Amino acid sequence: MSTELITDTLNELSLEGIEKSYRIAEAEDVGRHIVLTKDVEQGEIIFQDRPIVTGPARHSEPVCLSCYRLINLNPQKAPTDPEAPVPYVACPRCKWPMCSEECTNHARHKAECFFLFSTGCRINPGDTDSLYDVIMVLRCLYLKNHKPEAWKELVNLQSCEAASMDEELVDRAEKVANLICGTFKLAESFSRELVFEMCSRLETNSFEIPWSQQGVAIQGVYSIGCMLEHSCIPSAHKTFNKDLTLNIRAAYSLDEGDAVSLCYTDNLWTTAQRREHLVYSKDFICTCDRCQDNTENETYMSGLKCLKCPDGFYLPDNPLDCATNWFCYKCKAQAPKGYNDMAESKVSEAVSKLEESGLTVPACRKFISTYSRVLHPNHAHMLDVKYSLLNILGHSQEFMMESLTEQDLKEKEDLAICFLNVASKVLPGISRLKGTSLYELYLSVRQRAILALNQLDKVDHSKESIMGLIRTAGIHLQDCIDCLQYEPEHRPEGRLYKAALMERQNLMELLINVENKFKN
Ligand SMILES: [Zn+2]
Ligand SMILES: [Zn+2]
Ligand SMILES: [Zn+2]
Ligand SMILES: [Zn+2]
To answer: Which residues pair with 36 in a beta bridge?
Structure first.
């Protein structure tokens, strides 16, 4: 089938009776991509997509191949809590470790089970966690003879040329090909070239799907989802349901003709980090508006403190050129040659050390005060540590919410406001960053009201000032609820949404408390 024909067919495929709000367009620079055919409101679903194929990602902890529950390959250890890995059950046909007999018969496990059983290969359960790379590829190959429609969709996805596959990917593809064509004795059915092509296609097109259990990493390939173009300031918000359906919503109000985009890298990294990661993982050179703008939409996320003037920062002259000169935007002084690379490697080393030794409130504070002499307050590494601090202040043993001083609360508020400001510039509209920051901001303002109320016999706070704090907290709480309402229940942000809904009641009780105190 020609590319145009497939694009046309996909354009015609719409959910019965529902008017589609997008079409698949083709352009020389970005290839196939998705464009809106009507205006959509913030939060409105643009499309939902069922995966063609899913499987464990290579860096996943041992999981059941059907339900993706963590499994314990060491049967001596009994699970202690419901979140803990469960003892495994070997599949009666292929011996692959699964969570239960029921899961060994699940449709999702059919592909690898069919191949291994038919060639007489049996798996040694203890060796499986290094074999996850091969599952996704076997599941793709299975489609060829068993689900031709899905196979057509799969081979229609973009892939990078064999010649431009990076070394690491070639290495992995080599291992997968050795397993499939050698160990698993499937060389007669599938050539090494086909296995290589599958590995490359998966690398370019699969989405990492966040899961409920920590340590589980799942990937999935989506026929429409894969066509979403990348932007370092995305227009769409993505979530995955528990059944792995992909939901794409408008992150903010979008107009007919607008492109629907996602960010395929970490939105809070510097331009150099994001672009390097995109080249490495997606074989794609980003030249989006944010990448071209050395201020990164006025966040200064790559900014380094100028050595010549008190309040200027060095920025790359041409952010699309990694060998560019860096200049201070205030005094125009040029940074010493190689200064940016040296600063980057020194600071990332310090961040790794900080993470290794445990993220504590004092350690994060020390990092922030030390590196504010080198980095812009919004520098990616600064944001990294600041986000940790925002989330441990009030939620760690020595810094529980009730024990925070006014100064701690002010610090927490400033951190939350910093993230709301950054989110508004690089993740406009709905985002998990905005929602979680709003929740922490709400907690701080509410705590300030409680603190004021408790001090009434010592400090002369007016009823109006305390009511004002509660009203402000209520506004942040509602904004948080509005922002997190799309998050699925099995994810931390979905659980935070539920907690935010419950907080409404707490806030109401606080209000009554204030009324009563001032009555006496
Ligand atoms: Zn299972
Ligand atoms: Zn099996
Ligand atoms: Zn970009
Ligand atoms: Zn300067």
So the answer is: 22
CA proximity to 316, closest of 306, 307, 308, 327? 327
**C-alpha 91 to ligand 2 mean position (Å):** 5
- Find the 167 Cα to ligand 3 centroid distance in Å: 24
Give the E-state strand segments of 6-145 in sequence order.
Answer: 22-27, 31-36, 45-49, 51-56, 71-72, 86-87, 89-90, 97-98
CA distance 447 to 503: 12
Q: Considering only CA atoms, which of 192, 221, 214, 177 is closest in space to residue 53?
A: 221
Q: How far is the centre of ligand 3, averaged over its atoms, from the C-alpha of 104 (Å)?
A: 43
Confidence of residue 73 (pLDDT cuts 50, 70, 90): confident
Q: How far, in Å, is the centroid of ligand 3 from the Cα of 289?
A: 7
Backbone angles phi, psi at 338, to 5 degrees: 80, 0
C-alpha 292 to ligand 4 mean position (Å) = 21
| Mean per-residue pLDDT, 505-512 | 95
pLDDT higher than 70, residue 18: no
pLDDT for residue 50: 95
User: For residue 250, what are the β-bridge partners?
Assistant: 236
Give the tokens for residue 382. Answer: 């600064």
Record the pTM: 0.91
Q: How far apart are CA 385 and CA 363, in angstroms?
A: 10
For 23, list phi and psi in degrees, rounded to 5. Answer: -140, 160
User: How is residue 19 written in tokens?
Assistant: 């008017």
pLDDT of residue 401: 96
Closest CA to 487 of 444, 432, 407, 434: 432
Radius of gyration of the chain (CA): 26
349-362 residue pLDDT tens:
999 999 999 999 99
Q: Which helix (H) or strand (E) holds 208?
A: strand 207-209
pLDDT score at 14 = 45
Contact by Cβ (8 Å): 250, 172:
no
Gap from CA of 327 to ligand 4 centroid (Å): 8
Ligand 2 centroid to Cα of residue 102, in Å, is 11
The mean pLDDT value for 110-132 works out to 83
Distance of CA 1 to the CA centre of its chain: 34
Counting ligands in written order, the one closest to the CA of 113 is 2
Residue 460 CA to ligand 3 center (angstroms) comes to 52
Alpha-carbon distances of 92 from 96, 116, 482, rounded to whole Å: 8, 12, 48
* Ligand 3 center–CA 232 separation, angstroms: 4
Q: Contact, 407 vs 390, CB < 8 A? A: no
The full set of domain ranges for the chain reads 58-219, 393-519
